[in-house]
Amino acid sequence: MKHVAITETTFMGDTNSRSSARRRRRPLHRMLVSFSAAYFAGALVTDIVYWQMPDVLWERFSIWLILAGLVMAGLATVAYVIDLAGRRRIERPAGPRVVGYALAVLLSVVNAFVHSRDGYTAVVPSGVTLSALVVVVLLFTAWVGMALANRQRVGA
Amino acid sequence: MMHALKIARSAKLPRLAALLVTVAGLGLAGCDDHAGDPKMQIGASPELPALQQYLMPPMRVAKVVGWGEETPTVAQGLQVHALATGFEHPRSLYVLPNGDVLVVESNGPKAPISRPKDIITGWVQSFAGAKAKDANRITLLRANGDGTPELRTTFLDHLNSPFGVALVGHDLYVANTDAIVRYPYQDGQTSITAAGTKLTDLPGGPIDHHWTKALLASPDGSKLYVGVGSNSNIGENGIGAEYERAAIWEVDRASGAHRIFASGVRNPTGLQWEPETRKLWAIANERDEIGPDLVPDYLTSVRDGGFYGWPYSYYGQHLDPRIVPQRPDLVATAIAPDYALSSHVAPLGVAMYTGTDLPENYHGGAFVGEHGSWNRTPLNGYKVVFVPFSGGKPSGPAQDVVTGFLDANDHARGRPVGLAVDRRGGLLIADDVGNTVWRVSSSKPVAPPKPAS
Fold it and tell me: Given A55, A92, A118, which is nearest B233 (Cβ)?
């Protein structure tokens, strides 16, 4: 990281294509993706608590957490487009990450509707199942992304 | 290498967009209901389909267009005219002994936002004219010979979402959403300025989901019966919020003390004495979001100490899975209501007909004002029906008496709410979207129909 920063300042103004690639700035979407993932994971926790102890408060936490996650996902999508357009640095390989994250977000959209039902069946069984599935998809996506990135790095 | 990757990346985007659109489309397609014929759900043993849970519950409200030059359509042998117009959300009616008509202009308190859904619901309701300003007022109309009002005054003002009114002797009781208040009333009085005295608190805010409090005095005047609606559709605000709600209260008029006369009635919006057996009858609005044909709203006699199912079950022992923990002990005792009015019609007014002006076939029976559905396709309700009674019990299918609240495009010209029978035997209908009070009378008399103001 430090190395990149140094080269950036050192070679500022260089028209060489290699250094212009190094000059790419930090991506905007990454932090937003992390936020949404954290919200979705939070919803799984509050769902499990509600399932064990059906107090409506937990159910309400869940739906607001899912909504917050979706808002963050929306912002992350906008940021991703900006990153692409602005030629910012994007982790490679992007394909599996994009597909996995999109799947998690779509499941969360469905989950938001399920969570908008009235009463117990807003969470048990479909709601909590969807929340768990979202977290599993996110974890799997992260793992695949890291594994592929490592392989590429090793192979390089 | 870097460029190649970038091209591959951008190629992914349209695929993602296509996927998003597909799934969003699937969610919306879930709106299509397969609603049955409402006629199969009228009477003592309605057909009850299996319950279904939605991904996206249908919201189908009739767009408000107003009456213009139109008037409601009435059954043969009847005529209708506007008794008075220009009200602000008139919800219920009460006829004083001298024939003066009280028009309660009211709307519910602002609903709190507990979930994202509440924002959507509020937005949808605003299209149905349900978000009108709360006038919190009772207007008095004094009719002259031909049934048009000669006098219109503000009878009581600065109330708090009032609905029920009952007069016992010289005590006039108004059921605000949070309390019953007593006012002194002298015969012929057209305006009350005296401060009211609180008889008892009623379950009000902060949620106050079903805010209307129906009111009826016992024949001897010693008790008041109050319809107190639930604080949720199906307990989603927590069972603690339902304390002494979804019940019919019996309030002692002398002391203000109350007991729960009947419970498990989700939203009892109208109470009447059946004239033959002198039993208490109620109309009730049942639960939503488990299908276009669940659960039928109903008209029922109310047994002292009876439990009518909500929230644990409906129509006797049909369990509702949305409420946990269940209460099998209560469900075992749940009474199935006497007479189903079909699903989502939203009965908000009931009047047992004791007059003689209307044709013979309306003597003995209950008129029910059906405000109309907002979550069912096709729409249901939006009319006033008559349930014939014989021997103190409903004796046949409900007949449409006043229709035309919807136009050919299913837009709402008005929506019927509270009903009352005036001193001369005409049926009065409060219309909270048309902002009118309609009067239905027999077409035999020569009184010319002439709309007022």
Answer: A118
pLDDT digits (tens, 9 = 90+) for B296-343: 999 999 999 999 999 999 999 999 999 999 999 999 999 999 999 999
Nearest to B236 by CA among A83, A105, A116: A116
Edge-first strand listing for the sheet containing B258-263: B213-217, B223-228, B247-252, B258-263
The answer on pLDDT for B8 being more than 80 is no
Q: Which two tokens stand for residue B380?
A: 């249901």
Token output for B422:
């005036």
Cβ–Cβ below 8 Å for A121 and B321: yes
Query: Can you list the alpha helix ranges (DSSP code H) found in B30-51?
Result: none
**Domain assignments of chain A as residue spans, ordered by start:** 26-155
Which domains does chain B possess?
Answer: 51-442 (2.120.10.30)
- By C-alpha distance, which of B106, B149, B71, B68 is closest to B440? B71
DSSP string for residues in B252-297 = ETTT--EEEEEE--S-EEEEEE-TTT--EEEEE----SS-TT-SEE
Residue in B55, B57, B322 nearest the CB of A119:
B322
**Which stretches in chain A have pLDDT values below 70?**
1-24, 155-156
Whether pTM exceeds 0.80: yes
Q: What are phi and psi of A43, to 5 degrees?
A: -65, -35
Q: How many CB atoms lie within 10 A of CB B11?
A: 10
- Per 3-state DSSP, what percentage of chain B is helix, strand, and coil (rounded to 5)? 10, 35, 55
User: Looking at chain B from residue 77 to 106, which residues have their Cβ under 8 Å from any Cβ of chain A?
Assistant: none
Residues 27-56 of B with CB under 8 A from A: 27, 53-56
**Secondary structure class of B36 (helix, strand, coil):** coil
